[in-house]
Amino acid sequence: MTLKWEGVMPAVTTKFTDDDQLDLVTFKKNVEAQLAAGVSGIILGGTLGEASTLTSEEKETLVRETLDMVGGRVPVVINIAEQTTREAIEVAQKAEKLGANGLMILPPMRYKATDYETVVYFKEIAKSTALPIMIYNNPVDYKIEVTLDMFEELLELDNIQAVKESTRDITNVTRFKNRFGDRLKILGGVDTLALESLSAGADGWVAGLVDAYPAETVAIYKLVKAGRMEEAIAIYRWFMPLLELDISPQLVQNIKLAEVATGIGTENVRAPRLPLQGEERKRVLAIIDEAMKTRPELPDYLNL
C-alpha cells in the first residue's frame, strides 16, 4: 500500500478494560469511527497510545489487530520511541515483518542527543527497513529540534519522506516548503495550530482530538483543502476549547473523557496515569459538555 502522507491521521488511544487488559472491542469501535469519518491513516503507539506502559506483547497484539481491523483501507503507521538505536531498529523491523505500512520516529529518548547523533540515529533506523518514515519534530516536549540542515542530510535516504511538525513555529511550514518542496511532506502535529498549518500548505494533520471527534477533524481538513475557509474556520472556532485539551500533560485523560462523551471510548488509563480528579475533572467535563451542546452540523465534506 502506498503511503501518501496526507489527510488526517489520528494518533489513536489504546483502550483498556476495567481490569487493565487491552480492550480490543472498544478499540475496534473507535477505529471504525475513524475510518467512517474519512481519515487517511492510523498511527499506533504514540503518547496518546500510552505506548510507554505497554508490554512488547501488547504492542504486537495491537499492530496485528489493527491491521486486521483496517483491512487495507488505510495505512497503519507504527510509532517508534525507544531508549537505544538497537531497540528502535528491532521495533522497525518487527513492524515491517508484521505488515505495517509506515513508521513515525521520535528522536532518542531520555538523552539530549547532539544534531550529529540525532541524524545518525534516524539514518540507522531508516537503513534497517524499507518502510516509509515520518520524523516527529517536537523540541517543546522532547528537547531536540530537527533543523532544516539536519533534514537536508536525512533526505538523502529515500524512505525518509515526511515530518510531523510540532515546533509550534507556524512559519516552519513555509521554510520546509521553500527548502524541500514536495520532497518532504508536512503534517501538522499541534491540534491548536492545525488550521493555520494547513492554510500555510501542510499536507496533513496528525491529530489528537480526532480520537473523540473524527468527523469534525476531517471536515476541517477537507474544507481547507477545498478553499472553503469560512466553513472551516467556523468549525475550528467551535473546536478550539477541545483542541486545547491536547496541549496538556494530561492529554490522554482529557481525550479519553471526550471519547466517553461521543460514545467511542472509555475513561480507563494505565497507571501511573490516573483518571482526572476534583476541580480539573470538572473543568474538562464542562468544556466537553459545552462542546456537545453546541456541536456543529457538518457539510457533506466527504464528497468535496
From TrEMBL:
Gene3D superfamilies: Aldolase class I (3.20.20.70)
Sequence positions that bind pyruvate: V206
Keywords of the record: Lyase
Domain of life: Bacteria
Active site per database record: Y136, K164
One Gene Ontology MF term: 4-hydroxy-tetrahydrodipicolinate synthase activity
Family of this protein: Belongs to the DapA family.
Entry protein name: 4-hydroxy-tetrahydrodipicolinate synthase
Source organism: Sinomicrobium oceani
